[in-house]
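Section 3.1: Structural characterization of target chains.
Under the original work plan, the team committed to producing a structural model for every single-chain target entering the pipeline before any wet-lab resources were allocated. The record below documents one such target. The sequence was received from the expression subgroup and is listed exactly as submitted; it comprises 282 residues.
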Amino acid sequence: MGSLRLIRRIPLVGFLLSAWDSFDEQAVAFRNTLSPEQHAVHIQKIREVLLVAAVLLVLGYGIGDRPFFEATFGPIVQASPSLERYHELLSFTYWSVCKILGYGLLPALHLRIRGERVADYGLSFRSLSSVSESIRLPWGRTYLILFAGILPLVFAVSFTPAFQQSYPFYEKSGRSVFDFVVWEVEYLLTFVAVEFFFRGYLLFGLRRYLGSLSLFVSMVPYALIHVLKPTPEALGSIFAGLLLGTLALCTGTLWSGVLLHVSVALSMDVLSSLQTGRFPKF
């Protein structure tokens, strides 16, 4: 018990633990108001969300990734000189569209079919959090504080060869303004879909009944989509999933996480391009 008190004194860790306790208290109070029939309804909803999420994740890696594009459409692209010039960009466009569809549009369609408002799953721009005042956060200010803390780190690592070789993912983004803008638009839109899937559809779909456990349920598949990344980044996704999920529940919206993801990703691409002289001339 003494060690737990010491851990709780660490500012960020203490805040997370307090927030999780609050989420659990709310979930217990909510479950205690339900009749057996209502319990069954909520359990069925949780089953639906997890089943749909699993199917979409599997399909995303089966037919929604670039190897599938190359195997299915690669020969068609190679046969056309005008398309071949943008072969790599087209494969990334396919990847992006599939992520937006699988992580964003199809989960939203499922919610609409169930007769629910998609805005209630973290997409509202208003901070409508039902958590206690002690852990309630304004999403705009939260985003600015986090981005201000992360940007110097991104700038520092932008000088490393590993960073410069990894970003942007689309290697020909510096070829022209068109390449750069198209790549960044489709790349950054995928982060909106990713945040909605993990911090909206999954997290907000489970939170009222499961409390803080919803954070860990949504964190596991989020970590798994990072397993092919460098080990430090993959391990960091575990903490990032818990932190971004907690912030989403404390703010009542996922937009602080969306903007953080988009801002960091764009900064990484821009800084890497500038450092290597690949930034397109406008």
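The mean pLDDT is 92.
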